[in-house]
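Box 3.1 A note on notation
Throughout this textbook, protein chains are presented in two layers. The first layer is the amino acid sequence; the second is a token string describing backbone geometry. Keep the layers aligned when reading.
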Amino acid sequence: MFVLTTVAESIRIPPSFFAQPTDTSVNTEIDKKYPNRVIMDVGLVISRYGSCLSIGDGVCVAGDPGAHYEVVFKLLVFRPFVDEVCVGTIMLMSEEGVRVSLGFFEDVFIPAHWMLRPSAFDNESGCWAWTPNYDDDDGDDDDDEEEEGEGKGDRFEMEIGAEIRFKVKALHFTRVTNTAKGVQATTSTTSHENIVGPMMSRSRALNTDGGGDDGGAGAGGGDNERPVRRRSSSVDLSDATKIPPSFYIVGSICEDGLGLTSWWSAPEEDEEEGGEEGEEEVGEEFDSVAE
């Protein structure tokens, strides 16, 4: 989910910071510029990681009182790998799908076609509901009819604020630029079709390292992803709703174990409670017989 990215950047130090040590001033400027910023095809920057790896000599530019330093440093970046399982909370629901929040990141969308099947959107309650069908097992026709009758009564509804477990299916990065034709939104998509290493401009990023053995690389090659296709679309600034977020995730709950965590944990808890009650009853009966 989190990776370390090494970045080379020119950092400007204002004259008011000249009295401070250079590394302190550089770290302060990095902390102002990068956290909560999306780097195209890399991810959402969380924070600076450690001290700078190298700081070059300061350069003064004509007409600018500040000093410019070529700096190499590491950033902690949020970038889940494709097929990673994450847990969040439901923010919004509509006929198009479900929007999920991870707390610090809210641009996660689960479209209708990635819902557990069969699922349907209830216009009255404004919630999605999963109605599992248990008549797929082999057996006699009578048994199938009984199971079908029982399955029709099962209905699991989603609720706003409920905890949901989903699998990452695609990562989308969007850059909005002004061109001669107007405003263009260029979106690059990373999906499971091709997983080969995040790309970043050679002049901006030197390399991308996994956050550890339990990070993206250890669980499926999170630091070996790259965009598999790029597409451009014209965006009108007068209608801001058409501009997609800089970074958003498409998720899926179309597998066993995914969806609301309460759907899968509640039955086990009930069985454990029932087992404990049964043991207590047996213990009381044994004590009465012994007396």
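Residues 138-152, 194-228 have pLDDT under 50 and may be disordered. Residues 261-290 form the longest helix (30 residues).
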